[in-house]
Structure formats: C-alpha cells, structure tokens
Specification:
By secondary structure, this protein is mainly α. The model has no long low-confidence stretch (mean pLDDT about 85). It contains eight helices and no strands. The chain has helices at about 1-25, 45-50, 55-70, 75-95, 105-130, 140-160, 165-175, 180-190.
C-alpha cells in the first residue's frame, strides 16, 4: 500500500506542476523589462518533491511535469528552454539543500532555483543565437529570479507546514534519509519557537 501511495503522491505533484505551468503560460509577461520572464510558480512543486521524496522520485516529478506540459501546449523550443532551466534549477537546489537547515533556509534554496532556472534558459538562448550577448539579460533575470524564488519559497514553506499529506511524506522520508531528517527536525523546532 505504501508504494501505491507514493506513486499517487508523485503523480499528483507532477499533475499540479503541469496545471501551474499551463496557467502561468496563459498569464501575460509580468516583467516588461525582461521578455520571457515568468514567476516560476511550478518550481513550488519541485521544492515539495525535493523535501518529501528520495532524489530518484523527485527527479521523476520534474521530468513528468516537463514532458506532459510540453505535450499539452509546448514546442521544441519551449521544451529546450524548460529542460535546461528545470534541471539546472533542480540539481542546484539539491546541492544547496545539502548545506543543511543551519546554513540555508528553504527560501534560500528556492531563490537559488529561481536564479539557476534563468541561467539555464539563457545558456540555451545564447547557444541558439550563437551569441554570448544574450547573457547580458542575466543581471535582470537574476534579480527577478531571486524575488520570484523568495515568493515561491515562502509559499512552499507554508504548504510544508500546513498540508498534512506533505508533512506525512516528509516524516516518512526522514526515517530513511538523514538530510531530510535534519530538515524535518528543524521545521519542528521552528513550530515550537
């Protein structure tokens, strides 16, 4: 039963990520000074997966979200941009998370993901354009990535504290993973303060 429950949870996270991605695509660009910039709300699902699932399962969530959202309204170019941004962000957040709850917060991890997502997309854009000048957008996109990452981190932090199912999966993962255990115990300490 536990395996079926985990598969259902992975599927629900991926589906929620797809819905958020499709909704975000329908919103006009909020940042006129940075063409193509988005809020990155689907990154919230990635953060929840990283903090509640083993790496191979959180990777599945990111991969499934990317593939399904591409099939439901993307093109080859959106797939390439999304792929580069999503996986650079994913691996960057996993790396920063290893620093532990005493050195970095969930919001800091999310901000890192926001910046790296933009870096990945700019690398693809500069490769396609065959010009390094595309990277001149990096300071602007890094700025928007930090602020959207902070907002997404705050929302993910709230969900992890208040949604029972997410909390249960984090507790179960904490039993088998020392890093998740450290993060889970830190969140409990925050509740007591």
């Amino acid at each position: 039963m536990r395996k079926n429950r985990k598969l259902l949870y992975i599927s629900l996270l991926a589906a929620q990520g797809v819905v958020i991605t499709l909704l975000e695509r329908s919103i006009p660009f909020p940042f006129a000074f940075a063409p193509g910039a988005k809020l990155g709300l689907a990154n919230m699902v990635t953060i929840l997966a990283i903090f509640t699932l083993p790496h191979k399962d959180s990777f599945k969530v990111v991969w499934m979200r990317l593939i399904v959202s591409t099939f439901l309204g993307g093109t080859l170019s959106t797939f390439m941009y999304s792929f580069a941004g999503a996986f650079l962000s994913y691996f960057g957040m996993i790396s920063v998370r290893r620093l532990g709850p005493k050195r970095v917060s969930l919001i800091g991890i999310s901000a890192t993901g926001g910046i790296l997502h933009n870096v990945g997309q700019l690398v693809v854009a500069s490769t396609i354009a065959q010009s390094f000048s595309v990277m001149l957008y990096l300071p602007i996109l890094a700025f928007t990535g930090i602020f959207s990452g902070i907002a997404v981190g705050i929302a993910a932090n709230y969900l992890m504290d208040h949604v029972v199912t997410i909390r249960q999966f984090q507790r179960e993962e904490a039993k088998t993973n020392k890093l998740t255990q450290a993060w889970y115990e830190a969140s409990l300490m925050d509740e007591w303060e």
